[in-house]
What does this fold into?
Amino acid sequence: MKDIEEILRYFPNSVNSLLKSTLIQDRNLQKDLQEIRIRVERPILLKTRQADIVIDYQISSSEILQTLEKLCENSVYAYKNQICEGFLTIRGGHRIGITGTAVVEGEKILNIKYITSLNFRIAREVINCSNYLLKEIIDRENNSIYNTLIVSPPGKGKTTILRDIIRNISNGISEINFKGMTCGLVDERGEIAAMYKGAPQNDIGMRTDVIENISKSKGMKMLIRSMAPEVIACDEIGSKEDVKAIRRSYIIRY
It folds into this structure.
C-alpha cells in the first residue's frame, strides 16, 4: 500500500481517513486501484480495471482547494505552468489531472481557476513486464534496437511497459548477450523516471540520462548535443511537433 499512501497524504484529513478505511478493508482494491477521482459536490470514485467503486461522500470545493495546495506544496503560483497544462506530477510518478474554468488569451491558457475535479492516476512499476516484447525490439545481430512505437488505448499500460523497456535496454540483458546502450529519456510529464530532487524514483537503468519538464523537441536536441545517446525514448506522441522532433532527431543521430 506504500504507493497509495504516497497519494493519500495529499487529501484533507477527513477524506484521507475515509479512503484509508476503504482500502484497508479490501487488499484486492489496493492492488488493482488505478485512479482516485474527486469532483466538487459529487461522490469519490475509485477506479479499477474491473469496476468503479463509489464512496458516498460529497467533496466540497474547499477540500479540492486544500488538496491542490498540498500538491503544490502551499505555493500554487509556483506550479502555475503545470496547472495550465492540465496536470501535476508528484513524487513516485503519480499524475494528477486537473479541470476547472480555463482563463484563455488567444490560444494560450493563462490559468485554471475554480478547480472542479482532480484525477489521481496511480503509477506503478512492473519490473520485467516488457520481457515478452524484447525480441521484437532488440536487434541482437547488431547489438542495437529497432525503431519502435507502442500503441494502445488509454490506461492499458504503455508507460509502464516503456519504462521497463528503457530499463532493459539501459542495463543490458546477459541472457541474450545484449550489452546495455546509452539511453536519453525525454520525460516531458515526469511519469516515466519520476524524478524527485534530481533522483529517479523508478528504475530506468544505469545508462539512462533524463531530462524532464521540457518539450520533446527541445529535450531531444539537448540530449543529442550533450549526452550522445544511442537510444532516445519519450512518451505520448500526440502532435505534429512531436513527430517533427522525432524525425529531426533521427536525421541528426544518423
